[in-house]
Amino acid sequence: ADASDLRPEAWTVSSNTAVKLSFVDEEGAVQFTPTFTYPIYGDSEQIFGYQDLQILLAFDSVTFKPFCNVKFGAKLADTDDNVQDKLLKYLPDGDVIVKDEIAWVDTFNKERESFTLPDESKKVASYSREGHNFAVYKVDLHDDNVKKLHRRMQIFTLFLIESASYIDEGDEGWELYMSFNTGNKQCVGYSTTYKYWKYMGARNFDSTDKTFQTGKISQFLVFPPYQGVGHGSELYNAIINDWLADTKVIEITVEDPNEDFDSLRDRNDLKRLYASGIASEIPRELPIKNEWIEAQRSIFKIEKRQFQRLIEMLLLHICS
Ligand code: ACO
Asked: Could you say which of 101, 255, 285, 303 is catalytic?
């Protein structure tokens, strides 16, 4: 062998580029790479012992039936061959079709025949984009179809959201909001949410403790092939509107939002505040009194810190 082949670098690949994700539909496959792979391949996100390693993980775009195929140009003799096992651990047991692409296509085509969207009664919003119709459904893991789909797609929380971990399926409190193209039945994104009972303190001792809830957005994602055309905003607004209409929910929070989510949230919260006419009611006497902030933010069910940021942004907008 060439001496350069003995350098460790020649046998080290980034797991973020070795993993190739794809969605398959009638028109072919769309390929993209994960943002994170450290939960699967370790903190350094590097895999040692292979050359030209490709870990292909494909999903049918409707059923999310997974397919996995690991390919490489060369492998060091003493490498333990576990890149595939490490990945399969995060996918539903026995559900992934390995290597046999024809069997995979046959299986998802068969599954598609009986694949249905959630019941109409679960629909909380609908919209259209680029000539296609979409709807957001509020579903839960009691529904076997939802459970099956969620088990297949939850690996995307690891690939796309930093410090994500799998939700406890046995906990009955999870509610999922899922966005589907209602024509071809593709799921474009989803969010896991949870409602917590909020203890109101002695101030409200007349009421029972279990009266008010905080709605929390936990994991939120739009699958990469569908990003950047507004699905994230539609999904976010569907959740917010559902909670604004729910009299038990008095506050809405988000678990560890990242920069992209903050931007999406700010844009949509600002639009909502602006449309309400609040901009013209902001007291001009600074600092703004806490009573005003508390009274207003409770109408919009926005957390205090977020509400103060939004008011500052509105003030900047008005004064500029
Ligand atoms: N035409 C062109 N551009 C548009 C359109 C349109 N019709 N609609 C929106 N956009 C732009 C927006 O202005 C925005 O631009 P910006 O990024 O410069 O601000 C951009 O597209 C994204 O907005 P949306 O399309 O509404 O959002 P998207 O559907 O892309 O979803 C999200 C955003 C959820 C952050 C997505 O990128 C994603 O899933 N990322 C990976 C996972 C992730 O980071 N999730 C959040 C983690 S935090 C948490 O889970 C609580």
From this structure: 255
Q: What is the DSSP letter of 302?
A: B
Contact 135, 90 (CB under 8 A): no
| pLDDT tens-digit series, residues 153-177 | 999 999 999 999 999 999 999 999 9
Domains and CATH numbers, the chain: 3-113 (3.90.360.10), 116-256 (3.40.630.30), 261-320 (1.10.10.390)
How far, in Å, is the centroid of ligand 1 from the Cα of 272?
Answer: 17
- 154 by Cβ neighbours in 10 Å (0-12 / 13-18 / 19+) ranks as buried
One-character DSSP codes across 86-99? HHHTTS-TTTPEES
The tokens for 315 are: 């003030």
- Span 2-20, pLDDT tens digits: 666 778 888 999 999 999 9
> Which ligand 1 atom is the nearest neighbour of the CA of 233?
26
For residue 12, count CB atoms less than 10 angstroms from its CB and return exposed for 0-12, middle for 13-18, buried for 19 or more. middle
Q: Does 228 sit in the ligand 1 pocket, CB within 6 Å?
A: yes
Does residue 175 have an active-site annotation? no
Establish whether this prediction's ipTM goes over 0.95.
Answer: no
Q: Give the integer Cα–Cα distance in Å for 309 and 315.
A: 10
